[in-house]
Amino acid sequence: MKIYVTSVYVDDQNKALDFYTSKLGFIKKNDIPVDDDNRWLTVVGPDAADGVELLLEPSGHPATKPFKEALVADGIPLTSFQVNDIEAEHRRLTGLGVTFTMPPTDAGPVKMAVLDDTCGNLIQIVEMKAAG
């Protein structure tokens, strides 16, 4: 068994697609209309075209809004992405206008930072430290 797709709930799929591709560097994989207002819209990592897909899921379900608001209020990221150099990624993203709620921070075996995806979510990025 392997992970095929995971989701982030987004307030606006077009805005999310722009952020996740133009800012974070993901690549659009699927864009299939589901109904008049929603699409099966997924992105993948630039080096993993056949890897796990991130579904930019419309946040229309009534439970989604309070769930997302509670996570943001408590500073809890919805998901996490790995980067090779968190300091360089923080500089790059800050230069693109991305807002961070937590700058790169040493957290034992990882360095982590938290950003606002502009679609109602906090997203964590992590750099794994070398063992030893």
Work out the helicity level: 10-25%
What is the end-to-end distance? 31 Å
Taken in chain order, the helices and strands follow as EHEEEHEHEEE
| Structural class category | alpha/beta
Work out the oligomeric state of the chains in this entry.
single chain
The main sheet orders its strands as 1-4-3-2
Q: What share of residues are in beta strands?
A: 35-45%
The dominant shape is globular
Number of strands: 8
General description of the model:
The protein is an alpha/beta fold and 132 residues long. 23% of the residues lie in helices and 39% in strands. The protein has 3 helices and 8 strands, in the order E-H-E-E-E-H-E-H-E-E-E. The protein has helices at 13-23, 64-73, 86-95; strands at 5-10, 27-33, 39-44, 53-58, 79-82, 100-107, 110-116, 122-128. It has a 4-stranded mixed β-sheet, with helices on one face. A hairpin with a 5-residue loop joins strand 7 and strand 8. 26% of the residues are buried. The mean pLDDT is 95.
Question: What distinguishing features does this structure have?
Answer:
four-stranded mixed sheet, 132 residues, 8 strands, alpha/beta
